[in-house]
Design a protein that fits this description.
The complex is a heterodimer of chains A (130) and B (387). In chain A, 7% of the residues lie in helices and 38% in strands. Chain A has 130 residues and is mostly beta strands. With 387 residues, chain B is an alpha/beta fold. Helix content of chain B is 36%, strand content 18%. In chain B, strands 3-2-4-7-1-8-11-10-9 form a nine-stranded mixed sheet, sandwiched between helices. A two-stranded antiparallel sheet of chain B has the order 5-6. In chain B, helix 1 packs across helix 3 and helix 7 crosses helix 11. The longest helix of chain B is centred in the first third of the chain and has 16 residues. Classes of the chains: A mainly beta (130), B alpha/beta (387). At the A-B interface, strand 4, strand 5 and strand 6 of A face helix 5, helix 6 and strand 5 of B.
Chain lengths: 130, 387
């Protein structure tokens, strides 16, 4: 996290912009492997023929945790739920918001969105229940 | 190709030394290693040094030459950074140098200063071992990442917080007689279960502490040991290293660690041993679930079967395969960059018979497993008594 708001992380910030606009995408190679930008090469097979593909509207929570001890950038966010969500060809990691941390279950259906942290206001990838 | 002997080992006390600099810690550990080896500093041909967060903790990069100075060594010195596997990687590079004739005497070690950052600062610093874009920005902490793996393991294979607590209890018990350990204190399963949650299902007692410390090992060629009549009965006979995707989301498995599986397979083949030959192991238990994943990666257990090993008494001090007789990262402590070489140091003492827990070792083969980040990098080393 650079702290310098003038600097964008090319590729990844484009991805967040797209998710925020409801037009999330991921990167797919010719062998069907999914990954998130920025990529010049498929991390799974090394092919360089990559294209942007629309992200499915929902995914399933594959694993999750409620974080109680955070780094200073997330000090005011605790407790918060972090999850890895399976969207088929690609998985995303983000915060699960609008849920009771004690009621989170693997397999739950969630939708991607962009939110912000309580502590710094930085925008982050979030998931909300569907 | 020459064999590689562990001529001597040195460790500082692992614990809270917030006022001590990294260079002071490494000076102490390296002095102890030279004294143990009976090798003069002037014989060292290179220093391989592991450190992870020196820029954040001490505002100090370029630590290779700095630590050569601290150790009193006049030789080329390089820092290796591979998160929590930093000095494991340094050991591997040192072994390669001795084997291929580049050097007869190599000092390898590591140090980390952590307590001066406090808990929040350390949490922030450790998190950079995860993927910044995909994980750290989402608020993933290091314990949080392992918690995601722990829940994935429970979902896939079963297991309970009680199983994890048994690992913490075991490793605290092992640390009791270890004068280098941060916690020489017994804990109970109930205490572990009642401790505050850090990232569920991992509580405070599932996590290694924040530790300052240093470790050092003097590695020499067979020929050097013989020519100088060194008492060096333990050899590094196998080395392996594996890698995986940086972010959990890009991994094939969330409840297995293929980087460690690859490293173990390579190290066993290199040494010409099998998992069943191993008498004791020092594994990277930065969190209790990490010990489970290590046991399975090292082929001591099939995937899904390592979770109950401590609770069943199989990996305890009086079990068939005692694991983390040093106390492990959990109780001995985890000064990140020092951990890999400290495992080699502890294992050497365990195998040559001068460790307080040596009586628990029934055999002559030991294994060290050192993992970086959420096991995106791993080294495995096989040590054997050869004379």
């Amino acid at each position: 996290m650079s702290g310098d708001e003038l600097v964008r992380d090319d590729g990844f910030d484009d991805f967040l912009d797209a998710v925020a606009d409801g037009e999330g995408f991921y990167v797919e190679c010719e062998n069907g492997h999914g990954s998130l930008p920025p990529r010049r090469v498929c991390p799974h097979c090394g092919t360089t023929d990559l294209k942007e593909v629309p992200l499915p509207e929902s995914g399933e929570v594959e694993t999750h945790t409620t974080i109680h001890v955070a780094s200073p950038e997330f000090a005011d966010d605790v407790p918060y739920v972090t999850a890895v969500v399976d969207f088929g060809p690609v998985r995303l990691t983000g915060q699960l918001q609008d849920v009771d941390p004690d009621a989170v279950e693997t397999g739950a259906s969630v939708a991607p969105d962009v939110g912000s942290t309580e502590t710094t206001g930085e925008r982050i990838l979030v998931f909300r229940p569907r | 190709m020459t064999g590689v002997r562990v001529a001597g080992v040195g460790l500082t006390h692992f614990g809270k030394h917030p006022e001590r600099t990294g260079r002071d810690l490494f000076a102490e550990a390296s002095a102890a290693a030279f004294a143990d080896a009976g090798v003069d500093r002037s014989a060292v041909e290179s220093l391989k040094y592991g450190n992870f967060m020196g820029e954040l903790a001490e505002h100090q990069g370029h630590q290779g030459p700095l630590m050569a100075e601290a150790a009193g060594v006049d030789a080329p010195a390089t820092r290796y950074e591979s998160a929590c596997a930093s000095s494991g990687v340094a050991v591997r590079e040192a072994v390669k140098d001795v084997r291929n004739g580049e050097a007869d005497v190599v000092l390898v070690g590591g140090a980390e200063r952590m307590n001066n950052l406090g808990t929040a600062g350390t949490t922030e610093a450790l998190a950079i071992a995860a993927d910044d874009l995909y994980e750290v920005r989402a608020g993933i902490t290091f314990p949080g990442a392992y918690a995601l793996m722990a829940r994935a393991y429970f979902e896939r294979y079963g297991g309970t917080r009680e199983d994890l607590a048994a690992i913490a209890v075991k490793n605290h018990d092992n640390a009791l007689p270890n004068e280098h350990a941060q916690f020489q204190r017994e804990i109970t399963v109930d205490e572990a279960l009642d401790a505050p949650m850090i990232a569920d299902p991992l509580g405070l007692y599932d996590a290694c502490p924040i530790t300052d410390g240093a470790s050092a090992v003097v590695l020499v060629s067979d020929e050097y040991a013989e020519a100088h009549d060194l008492d060096a009965p333990v050899a590094v006979t196998g080395t392996g290293q594996g890698g995986d995707k940086m972010a959990l989301q890009d991994r094939e498995y969330l409840a297995r660690t293929p980087a460690a599986e690859k490293a173990a397979e390579e190290a066993y083949a290199d040494a010409g041993v099998e998992a069943t030959d191993v008498a004791t192991a020092e594994v990277h238990d930065c969190f209790t679930i990490a010990e489970v994943l290590a046991l399975e990666s090292l082929d001591f257990y099939a995937p899904g079967e390592g979770i109950g090993a401590a609770a069943r008494g199989e990996t305890t001090r009086d079990g068939d395969l005692p694991v983390n007789l040093s106390g492990g990262l959990k109780a001995k402590g985890h000064p990140v960059g020092a951990t890999g070489t400290s495992q080699i140091a502890e294992l050497t003492r365990l195998l040559r018979g001068d460790h307080p827990n040596s009586d628990a070792v029934d055999g002559e083969v030991g294994v060290a497993h050192n993992a970086g980040g959420t096991v995106a990098s791993t080294t495995v080393h096989v040590l054997e008594v050869v004379a």
